[in-house]
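Researcher: We plan to redesign the surface later, but first we want a full-length starting point. Tokens attached.
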């Protein structure tokens, strides 16, 4: 997170206004509709600690489902780190 904050602050010097409480970050978008990795109920792949959500998992086609996948993954991670 510190690196992201530092990057936004640096970008704000080039493009004033970037460092705003309204600035959102989005993950990488990958659409492989035919790809269907083997996933657990927590959307974890066969590679421990690697989760796949949204369209990249090949199981969603819309923003609501992709958002729900992100929430499920986040909850799984929170449970694992025990916060």
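Model: Full-length starting sequence:
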């Amino acid at each position: 997170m510190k690196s992201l904050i530092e990057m936004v602050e640096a970008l704000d010097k080039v493009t004033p206004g970037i460092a705003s409480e309204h600035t959102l970050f989005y993950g990488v978008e990958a659409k492989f509709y035919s790809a269907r990795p083997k996933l657990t109920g927590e959307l974890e792949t066969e590679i421990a600690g690697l989760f796949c959500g949204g369209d990249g998992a090949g199981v969603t086609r819309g923003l609501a489902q992709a958002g729900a996948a992100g929430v499920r993954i986040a909850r799984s991670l929170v449970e694992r780190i025990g916060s």
